[in-house]
Structures are given as structure tokens and as C-alpha cells.
Design a protein that fits this description.
By secondary structure, the protein is an alpha/beta fold. It has helices spanning 6-9, 23-52, 56-72, 76-89, 95-125, 148-158, 171-180, 198-207, 223-232, 244-255; strands spanning 139-144, 163-168, 186-190, 214-218, 234-239. The chain has a five-stranded parallel β-sheet with strand order 2-1-3-4-5, sandwiched between helices. The mean pLDDT is 90.
Length: 256
Amino acid sequence: MEIIKLEKLKTIKGLVLPDAMTHVQEEEFNNNLDKFIENLPSKTYELIKLLVVRDFKLLQTRLGEMANGLNRICAIDAAFKCDKLAGFVKGDVSKSEVDIYLEKLVSEINTLSVDIQTLQYKKREKNQTIEHKKHEGRKNILAVDDDPVILNILKKVIDGEKYKFSGAVSGKTALKYLETHEPPDMIILDIEMPEMNGYEFAGNIAEKKYGIPVIFLTSNATREHIMKAMQTGAIDFLVKPVNEELILSKLDKYLE
């Protein structure tokens, strides 16, 4: 296991880290991060399953365990939200509110896992730079997703003074767009699409040497899934359901 140093770890949004760590403490903390990443997919699946079957007593217990695990990696805010949701479950809050809260919480925790994995991968590859295009005016963002609801959300958030939104409902449609338009400054790309999935599309544009940075849309935080996306050319990720504030934060990070 490669140790990510404290200063790099501090770049991960959602972690509240101490000012200093010894080498032993860094190693232990990185071990805790690995355990968190490995266990998260099964744990979040169980949370959703318990909500579906309405086993609120066990859901409350599992949320407490999740909070303990998040505290071990200094994800203080996410741990607090787990405890808060556990309180909702045993209170008078409507079950539909619990559904919404849990969906947002799982998305936030998956985002944290993906951000950690992205940092781990980039450290191994030692390839953390992309070319920034110096276009005048608004930068063009091409979003590729077969779900029109997601495209509408992205358009609502992105289209404005800083960024221009373009959308495509499939990988094939997006390839035609690239053949007839100036290359966009960024592509936001869904992975799970019919006919041509996100991996295939990203591989296609890499072969054609477009040199366009890609942010993948995903709801899957497993190591295998994230690793494959990074190897295909992802520079970052947005986790579904998409967080509107995070969309602009990711774009600003790479395009400003």
C-alpha cells in the first residue's frame, strides 16, 4: 500500500484532519481509508435494502456503525449526518423524508470514497495534470447521458455566464457532435448507457486524441469500477444523484 501524505489527504473535501501526523499515524490512517473503501459498497447496499424492507431498528444500528467508521477516517460531517438520520428513523419524521435523506447521504459518502480512490490512483500514476484550454468567453461543457432528467439537471446548473452546456443522449450522438463542432473544454460522461457505455466512449475519444478531460458520472464506488474509469481516462467523478453545488466545484477546479 502506498502512503498518501497528510498534505495530500487535506485536499479531500469532507475530511477534517489534524495539523500533523507521524509516519506511523499516516500509515494507520491510510489503512483505515482502505478498509472504508473496501467495505462501503456492501454497507451502503445494506442500508438501502433495510430502508426498502422498512427494518428501521436494524437500519438505526447500521447507521451508528457507519458513523463510527466515518469518524475513524475523520469524516466528521458525514458521521454526524449518519447519527442524525438514525435519530430521524426512530422519530416522527415521515418515511419519505428518510428515503430522501438516505439517498443524499449515500451519495455524499460514495463521493468521499471516490475522491479518496482518485487521489490514490493519481499518486500511483504520477499523472495529475491536464492541459487547460485558454478559450475566450464561456467554456463549453458536453454532457453525455441517456437519462434526460440528468441532462436537464446538468443544463440547469452549468448553463450560465461561465459555462455553456451541450448535451447528448448517447455515446454515438456525442461522437457525431465531436465530428461537427469545436471540441468542448470538458466532457461529463455517464458510464452506464446502452449501445456504447462510458468506458467505450472514453476509449474512442482517447484513440482519436481529442485531448478532452472527462469527468465520469457514476453511482458505483467499488475499486474495480473506479480503477477502470481512471484507466479509461477519467480525471474526476460526480456521484449520482448529482450534487448541484459539487458540479460547478469540479468544473472550476479544472477549468479556471
